[in-house]
Design goal:
By secondary structure, this protein is α+β, with helices and mostly antiparallel strands. It has helices spanning 4-20, 24-40, 42-49, 55-68, 73-84, 91-106, 121-135, 166-179, and strands at 108-115, 138-145, 152-157, 160-165.
Length: 180
């Protein structure tokens, strides 16, 4: 497996270009379309990846895709570069890193909020506002429910997890009692 640092270079280069040329929205929409295509037809990435398919055939296949699903030149060049460097099989991971970099530049952070039961709209907004005040960024919340946490809340903000669930508090109490 190729390290994320290598894949991150592709994502960073693309991010730099789209912000420099002020075409982030178009390129992001293009990449989302191709992500959906690759997810719907996983054999495409397999064909691009296999050494059994000649390089010229792969290039023609990509050209046909680009003809059927046209994109801005930056996106088509990016897809061609990924194909030429045998990285197109990592498209989804590169797209994920690209999305994180775009959000970072736009001052947006994602937060996954897990509670034992559903939370109301006003509670979601209050939490979004509080997290926004803490981070100084616009927060995109993804609320989830998990009855196994028993109560409380777990917030994953970027890569940091704040676990205020009753389940984890009980586990911590159990651990402390076992130490005695």
């Amino acid at each position: 497996m190729i390290p994320s640092a290598i894949l991150g270079r592709y994502a960073r280069s693309l991010t730099d270009v789209v912000f420099e040329e002020n075409i982030e929205a178009e390129v992001t929409a293009n990449l989302k379309t191709y992500s959906e295509i690759f997810l719907a037809v996983p054999d495409l990435l397999e064909a691009f990846d296999t050494p059994a398919v000649p390089r010229e055939t792969k290039a023609k296949l990509l050209a046909e895709l680009l003809f059927r699903y046209p994109v801005v030149p930056v996106t088509s060049n990016f897809l061609r570069i990924l194909l030429e460097h045998n990285r197109i099989r990592f498209f989804e991971r590169i797209f994920e890193i690209y999305g994180d970099l775009v959000n970072e530049r736009k001052g947006i952070v994602s937060a996954r909020v897990t509670t034992a039961g559903p939370i109301s709209g006003p509670e979601v907004e209050a939490l979004r506002s509080r997290l926004g005040a803490i981070t100084g960024k616009t927060v995109v919340l993804e609320p989830r429910t998990d009855s196994e946490i028993l109560g409380g809340i777990i917030v994953q903000l970027g890569r940091t997890i704040y676990d205020g669930s009753i389940r984890s508090q009980l586990a911590e109490m159990k651990r402390r009692m076992a130490e005695r």
